[in-house]
DNA sequence: ACGATGATGAAC
DNA sequence: TTCATCATCGTA
């Protein structure tokens, strides 16, 4: 059973959406072929009070996509080299998103976007088959005890927020 | 352990 | 317009 996730799934609180993305499939259509990757690691970025969230300083040109309603991509460049892939969550005008940090067989968000040919041209696009990049539920059941929560990576600058357990991983079998 | 590499936002 | 900063990776 395959079901494409639609805006109803994404238009909820980011902390509800993030762990549910584990075990779902990121699907990339490229040159008429579909490639699916099982999501194993995500991080939540939640609104203006989260100092690790780009939008905590306010609405800017870069973060504009984060303020859209849930279900669109937010992609941006980091360290001058790598594009980070995020899916926006929640209602319009509330900035929150989930960073897709790892999928099976590919480690690291920088390699992920490079290997499956994602770049900033997806920024602001909808997560749907028409855009060539979306997420599917393939019927896998993931329960709370399959999931581990830890602090986020690479956000030491965020003070207190750096300690929040907003990173979710599938435990190894 | 560290350099590559460039957009971003804030300060001057 | 200049500067420090950065949600990373590959080579050492």
The CATH topology: 3-methyladenine DNA Glycosylase, Chain A
Helix-strand pattern: EHHEEEEEHEEE
Rough shape?
A: globular
Structural class: mainly beta
CATH class category name: Alpha Beta
- Named at the architecture level, the CATH assignment is Roll
Query: Helix content range of the residues, please?
Result: 10-25%
Mean of residue pLDDT values:
96
Low-confidence stretches: none
Cα-to-Cα separation, first versus last residue: 23 Å
> How many beta strands in the DSSP annotation?
9
> How would you name the oligomeric state of the polypeptide chains in this document?
single chain
The count of domains is 1
CATH superfamily grouping? Methylpurine-DNA glycosylase (MPG)
Write the layout of secondary structure elements.
Layout lengths: L2 E2 L2 H4 L3 H7 L4 E6 L2 E14 L26 E6 L3 E7 L7 E8 L5 H7 L17 E5 L9 E4 L16 E4 L3
The chain binds a DNA duplex (12 and 12 nucleotides) through strand 4, strand 5 and helix 3.
């Amino acid at each position: 059973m395959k079901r494409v996730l639609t805006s109803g799934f994404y238009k909820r609180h980011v902390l509800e959406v993030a762990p549910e993305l584990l075990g779902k499939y990121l699907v990339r259509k490229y040159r008429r072929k579909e490639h699916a990757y099982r999501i194993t690691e995500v991080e939540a970025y939640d609104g203006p009070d989260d100092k690790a969230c780009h939008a905590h300083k306010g609405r800017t040109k870069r973060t504009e996509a984060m303020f859209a309603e849930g279900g669109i991509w937010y992609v941006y460049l980091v360290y001058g080299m790598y594009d980070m892939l995020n899916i926006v969550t929640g209602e319009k005008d509330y900035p929150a998103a989930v960073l897709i940090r790892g999928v099976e067989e590919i480690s690291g968000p920088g390699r992920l976007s490079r290997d499956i040919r994602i770049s900033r041209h997806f920024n602001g696009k909808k997560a749907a088959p028409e855009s060539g990049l979306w997420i599917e539920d393939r019927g896998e059941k993931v329960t709370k005890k399959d999931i581990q929560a830890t602090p986020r990576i690479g956000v030491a600058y965020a003070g207190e927020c750096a300690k929040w357990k907003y990173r979710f991983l599938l435990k190894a079998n």
